[in-house]
Amino acid sequence: MLKLKTERLELIPYSLEVAAAAIADKYQIEKLLNVKIPSDWPWSEVEEVLPFFAQLAADPLQLGWGAWLMIHSRENTIIGDLGFGGKNELGIVEMGYNVLPVYQNQGYGFEAVQALVNWALTQPNLHKIIATCPQDHLASKRILEKVGMQLKSCEEGLLKWEMTV
Fold first, then answer.
1. Domain boundaries, the chain
2. Contact of 84 with 91, CB cutoff 8 Å
3. Contact 82, 11 (CB under 8 A)
């Protein structure tokens, strides 16, 4: 099983089984992965795209290019999600991330994003990583700057960031 470990986190990509469990009943993931599920996980935005993540997980060529669970190692608890929206034929991926409010502003977002960017940079045929964040979201801006992304534009209050490989 593909897994990334950092000092405080374990990142696990959504497999087809994990995505199906999240769609059916998030508490099935507790049994499947032996992790704790906070009541405020997942966000409604993540729930809406779970069927898409299941489709990505079903394609072996997209392994790792979908959503990942962010698990606090010591607490063995899901604290957020991050990942990509699939890798297209041009080698471009769009990245996103969310950390549960109780775990925000403690460096977990940066730690997870840095690990996932490092993993992505080792994969073949990757040419660009794209991310967006609200113009007024200082924590996200700091994360994207620290992982080496460059600000490219601002449209309708959203900052667009890129990292060319």
1. 4-164
2. no
3. yes
The closest of 101, 149, 147, 127 to 6, measured between CA atoms, is: 147
Instruction: Look at 145 and 47; give whichever has higher pLDDT.
Output: 145
Residue 96 contacts residue 111 (beta carbons within 8 Å): no
pLDDT score recorded for residue 47: 80
- Omega into 42 within 30° of 0, i.e. cis? yes
Q: Which two tokens stand for residue 81?
A: 């999600």
This prediction has a pTM of 0.94
First to last CA, the chain: 26
Beta strands in 6-66 (DSSP E): 9-13
CATH code for the domain defined by 4-164: 3.40.630.30
